[in-house]
What we know:
The complex is a heterodimer of chains A (266) and B (190).
Chain A: H1 2-30, H2 37-45, H3 59-67, H4 80-91, E1 101-105, H5 126-131, H6 148-152, E2 158-160, E3 166-168, H7 178-182, E4 188-192, E5 198-199, H8 207-213, H9 223-227, E6 233-236, E7 239-242, E8 263-264
Antiparallel strand pairs in A: 1-4, 2-3, 5-8, 6-7
Helix pairs in contact in A: 2-3, 2-4
Chain B: H1 2-13, H2 24-29, H3 34-63, H4 72-94, H5 96-102, H6 113-124, H7 129-157, H8 169-184
Helix pairs in contact in B: 1-7, 3-4, 3-6, 3-7, 4-5, 4-6, 7-8
Amino acid sequence: xxxxxxxxxxxxxxxxxxxxxxxxxxxxxxxxxxxxxxxxxxxxxxxxxxxxxxxxxxxxxxxxxxxxxxxxxxxxxxxxxxxxxxxxxxxxxxxxxxxxxxxxxxxxxxxxxxxxxxxxxxxxxxxxxxxxxxxxxxxxxxxxxxxxxxxxxxxxxxxxxxxxxxxxxxxxxxxxxxxxxxxxxxxxxxxxxxxxxxxxxxxxxxxxxxxxxxxxxxxxxxxxxxxxxxxxxxxxxxxxxxxxxxxxxxxxxxxxxxxxxxxxxx
Amino acid sequence: xxxxxxxxxxxxxxxxxxxxxxxxxxxxxxxxxxxxxxxxxxxxxxxxxxxxxxxxxxxxxxxxxxxxxxxxxxxxxxxxxxxxxxxxxxxxxxxxxxxxxxxxxxxxxxxxxxxxxxxxxxxxxxxxxxxxxxxxxxxxxxxxxxxxxxxxxxxxxxxxxxxxxxxxxxxxxxxxxxxxxxxxxxxxxx
Lengths: 266, 190
């Protein structure tokens, strides 16, 4: 009797399963949608955690967007460089470009370095501050120091130091770019981790005002541009900029010549 | 008459989402936009009706004669999963944008307790074939109704000054509770 019921159970469920799978197989043939085979290939190499950290709902959606060019091949923060290499291989992209991107803070004007023009008692967020005469510092280009970037970071990779400036813990940074979006001043920038020479100032006011506003400001003197190798640095709007397109660690960057100490080697 | 009562009872008085709290996941997840809410409701209704019919047949023609009621869960899940697969393929073929907007919630109909609950409740109440199909249609209409009402409110809510900490899921839960209270007003309709 018991063997009998076992057989019935196995038989009936197996039969039903076969019928349904046959139905699905036919439906799959009839309703088949031509899909780029790369999508499933990319999906195979992804971690499959469906965590959504890339900004898409699940790994499948990310794979589809990568293949369609809506997402970058290194967009998976969980997989890191290994997965990015695999994805790049499938897409046929240069994987050398898959170097890890991290957020960097492009301002050194903390509370100690900057001069104040007023006391700001308003809402202590950076976005609110932009609406109120750009905060209490003389420098209107720099960091306000209310830490919206730190709030935006979901990976605990940022903190505010005692001087009122955000600091990125590069080991923890996954390069999601949320802090870049959060900063109303454009202080946060995404850089390759090997870009270890940074010109950390955004002030375009030039000698007179910049020097008053902050002891670590670019005053637009142009010493660095003259001393550096050709094309490594450019000057625009009283502000020097490093030309990262032809960046090289071996080239000479006159970091110590800067009167404002704007350069850092980090 | 009996069929009408079953229909109204399933759609309004014992609304699956708002009174019986079945299928909350898509109710909260896919109720942001009106058109995706409508199509999600239709997809769920379709799966409900077909699965109610098929599970009735399986239960009454296979499981009951062989005294294998213990297998009802397994076989019902089998039916529902296959149907969802079918619906998924169909929607992907017919409308890719709709497929994208339903996203993960489309395959999740498989684990939608509203559908399994429906099949189990019809067994429990010993409905006839016609009755269980009508019950499924009513439940599907009720589900769609709840989703559409929710989507309508949430579309308006985009413009409302919701306090920061209530934004997103928080205010949605509160509204769901209010809707549940409102639907309780239907009790005593029949």
